[in-house]
Amino acid sequence: MLGRLFKKKHAAPEPKPLRPSDSERLYVVGDIHGRFDLLRLLMKVLARDFDAVPDDGRSPRLVFLGDYVDRGDNSRDVLETMIRLGENAVFLKGNHEAALLGFLEAPERNKSWLRYGGLQTLASYGVKVPNLDAGEATLFDAAVELRNRMGPHVEFLQEMPVVYRSGDVVCVHAGLDPANPDSTSEDALLWGRSGFIEAGGVAGVCVIHGHYDDPEPVVTRNRICVDTGAYYSGRLTAARIDDQVRILTADILDAA
Fold this sequence. Notes:
The protein is α/β, with parallel strands linked by helices. It is built from ten helices and ten strands. It has helices at about 1-5, 35-50, 75-85, 95-105, 120-125, 135-150, 150-160, 185-190, 195-200, 230-235, and strands spanning about 25-30, 60-65, 90, 165, 170, 205-210, 220, 225, 235-240, 245-250. The radius of gyration is 21 Å and the shape is globular. The mean pLDDT is about 90.
């Protein structure tokens, strides 16, 4: 009688881990912003980590989260490296790639790009840097010269996808729209205009992203941010994601 009145309480089951496909081991790289020096260091860190991980049948998948250009001094070298990696990696578009492409299409309307790192990108391609208050003709000439000097880099940026999913893990530059996670709107995915951070992520998936720079990476069940402000901090961060999450970092001070 008493046993029926006081039923034994059981602990709630642990939530299922949010993991990538069983066939993949993800290496996801945060915002580079023209820091070619840090990219070279990080690639060595990732290679050492991969060599140290026991072979469990998973294939490595290298994913870059966008913002390869602007702010740092070597955007051209970064993009050239991306192209050489070719099919060995996934290159997602960031808002800075979108802004660069916008400048090439309509330089006068999109000249704000120059204030947010575009001047450094122009310089990396050997394009004469215009005055920030330059007129329409000067901006047009700069855009034409940049397009010519970029060559195949322009098409490379244009063809970049905006999201990559493996199992429960979604890779994207700035986050998903919590109200509509399947949306492909660049406002949400590239620019973060969605309330994603305030919502703490999206239920049922782990979103790994950049865009929101912070001195330390953020790792929670539903959200991982690996943008550690490489262009000013001297630290470029990645995450290895399989049955666990491991943060991997290249620090310019370690190479000194």
